[in-house]
Design goal:
With 539 residues, this protein is α/β, with parallel strands linked by helices. The chain has three domains: 261 residues, HUPs (Rossmann fold); 141 residues, no CATH class; 105 residues, Orthogonal Bundle (Tyrosyl-Transfer RNA Synthetase), CATH 1.10.240.10. The chain is 45% helix and 10% strand. Helix 7 packs across helix 9 and helix 11 packs across helix 12. It is globular and about 80 Å long. The structure holds tryptophan (TRP) and iron/sulfur cluster. Iron/sulfur cluster (SF4) binds next to helix 18, helix 19 and helix 20.
Length: 539
């Protein structure tokens, strides 16, 4: 480990798990896919959006990438199924997309590397050019888009993407994406996009279309067969990821949950019933084991008893009794009266055809009860019912999507301090920059050094606030953790002075760019091997 894996928020280890997918409070921070991509406070991404800390799954990843080890990849949604697939050699996929609005730069390299790494771990890999999005949301001409598209793909290839094993495409020429996007669009409406993206009556339709196109992109790897899929992106793309996860679930034929009684309850209500059931069961179980013979502890727990339990817990004189989930739950339990509470797995019909619904009833072994729109299974585990539901869905023409997972990386600081921006050339290094320019930009970069060499020797530098140190950890040290740590320690310990440090970094950058561009040139001659059209006939 290097000394740099500053998890963005080591200070607060006290957050609770969130169940709302992060939707609550989402208005307070802008995560805007088309806005300026800076994040001033990574902690809020966990607190307000429900992005999970990558550090928590790191141990489950076989041989993690250095960007993971160093905390550059700081967050994720639901990465565990991907890690599990990697460990078990099961199918999984990785996909990310690039808007061809300018030259690819060292910030994009993070995502290229993530795609390539997952491909090398055995994933089906996809790299796409979001040209429809660039045209609609950024207003680029097709000529500009053609040039940039080529440049992105050349860098992705030069960094190691294997096009024979993986898939590269442009949104504009991929008919399957557009068809899938069209189907997904049926599950989303304007109000929802307005709420997520701040769209309003002035938003043009093609921009909205680019959103469903991206949904198509994200689910494309699962078109033939459902599989865990990871989408590595910057946190500004999280709204897209959340929407894609929702749409994936909405497309499913069946929803599988657990329940305790025949009535339909939402999640909160279900939790209240579960709480009542578990407490009463424990009381009874305790009585049974302690007093031999069991006596009055026996018999099923009935709905009415759970209602009474929740009423006791609520205490007298409740306010607003008509509308709270608690009040609803109590009413439902009272109405169910003597019905015993029994844990069960419930399958709810979402989009199933009547034939699929029938087939699932057939497929569920053991005790079951069939209602108009749901089936309760008493003998099977939730996992078993989930697999059956997916099998039946696939047999009947559904997609059976697994909700896509995501990885989030930190944005690189600009070389001039501030944010790294494509529109400020000195702030970033383009993968197309002349190696000498790359050298010069590093030499001119802002540092975390002290005003004088003397002070630096005395106090040490501040690598945590140094764009040059970032270059080492994100790129220049590559997989050499030992080297990255040495830079950090020497800097913090005052042995390393900025002049030499920048010289070393600048030379490494020059080497990297020269090498990268050599590989790009090799690929330039082989572009026709790819199944990608670089001259669009659009105008
Ligand atoms: N919207 C992304 C961007 O702004 C590009 C993109 C399109 C994308 N489709 C995607 C990213 C699918 C990840 C997955 O750069
Ligand atoms: Fe940054 Fe290097 Fe100076 Fe330390 S010595 S502050 S890492 S440039």
């Amino acid at each position: 480990m290097t000394t740099d894996e500053s998890e963005p928020d080591e200070t607060s280890a006290d957050e609770q798990a969130r169940t709302d997918g992060g939707a609550a409070g989402a208005d307070d921070v802008a995560l805007d896919p088309w806005g300026s991509s800076t994040v001033s406070d990574y902690r809020r991404l966990f607190d307000q959006f429900g992005i999970e800390r990558f550090g928590e799954v790191l141990d489950e990843v076989p041989d993690p990438h250095y960007l993971m080890r160093r905390g550059v990849i700081f967050g994720h949604r639901d990465y565990r199924p991907v890690a599990r697939a990697m460990r078990n050699n099961d199918p999984f996929a990785v996909l990310s997309g690039f808007m061809p609005t300018g030259d690819p730069h060292i910030g994009h390299k993070l995502v290229f590397d993530e795609i390539i790494w997952h491909q090398q771990q055995g994933g089906d890999a996809y790299g796409l050019i979001a040209d429809l999005e660039a045209h609609s949301a950024r207003g680029l001409s097709w000529d500009e888009i053609d040039t940039h598209s080529r440049n992105y793909l050349l860098s992705l290839l030069a960094l190691g993407f294997d096009p024979e094993e993986g898939t590269l495409y442009r949104q504009s020429t991929n008919r399957e994406i557009q068809d899938l996007a069209f189907e997904l669009g049926i599950e989303a409406n304007f109000s929802e996009l307005a709420a997520i993206y701040d769209f309003d009556g002035e938003t043009d339709i093609s921009h909205m279309e680019s959103v469903v196109t991206q949904m198509g992109d994200i689910l494309y790897p699962q078109l033939e067969e459902p599989k865990p899929t990871v989408i590595p992106v910057g946190p500004d793309q999280d709204p897209h990821v959340r929407l894609a996860r929702d749409l994936a679930a909405r497309m499913r034929y069946f929803g599988v949950t657990t329940a305790y009684a025949s009535f339909e309850a939402d999640d909160t209500e279900q939790q209240l019933v579960a709480h009542a059931y578990e407490t009463l069961a424990e009381e009874r179980g305790g009585a049974d084991t302690e007093e031999s013979g069991g006596g009055d502890g026996g018999g099923p727990i009935r709905c009415i008893e759970a209602a009474e339990f929740l009423e006791r817990e609520r205490g007298p004189d409740p306010t607003d009794t008509e509308t709270t989930p608690l009040a609803n739950t109590i009413t439902m339990l009272r109405e169910a009266g003597k019905e015993p509470l029994r844990p069960r797995v419930r399958v709810v019909d979402r989009n199933a055809t009547p034939e699929a619904f029938e087939a699932l009833i057939e497929a569920i072994d053991g005790e079951k009860r069939v209602y108009d729109e749901h089936i309760d299974s008493f003998d099977l585990s939730r996992g078993a019912v989930e697999s059956l539901a997916r099998e039946v869905e696939l047999d009947h023409g559904g997609y059976g999507f697994v909700p896509p997972s995501s990885l989030y990386h930190r944005f690189m600081t600009g070389l001039t301090g501030g944010k790294m921006s494509s529109s400020v050339p000195a702030s970033h290094i383009s993968l197309l920059d002349d190696p000498e320019d790359g050298y010069d930009k590093v030499k001119a970069a802002t540092t975390g050094g002290r005003e004088t060499a003397e002070k630096q020797r005395e106090l040490g530098g501040e690598p945590d606030d140094c764009p040059v140190y970032e270059l080492y950890t994100y790129l220049l040290a590559a997989a050499d953790d030992e080297f990255a740590r040495r830079v950090y320690e020497e800097c913090a310990g005052g042995e390393r002075l900025c002049g030499d440090c920048k010289e070393q970094a600048a030379e490494l950058m020059r080497e990297f760019l020269a090498d990268h561009q050599e590989k790009r040139a090799e690929w330039t001659d082989r572009l026709d091997e790819l199944d990608v059209e670089f001259e669009s006939d659009r105008v």
